[in-house]
Amino acid sequence: MDLDHLIVAHNGYSYLLAFIWTFLEGETIVLFAGFAA
Question: Alpha-carbon distance 35 to 37, whole Å?
Answer without folding.
Answer: 6
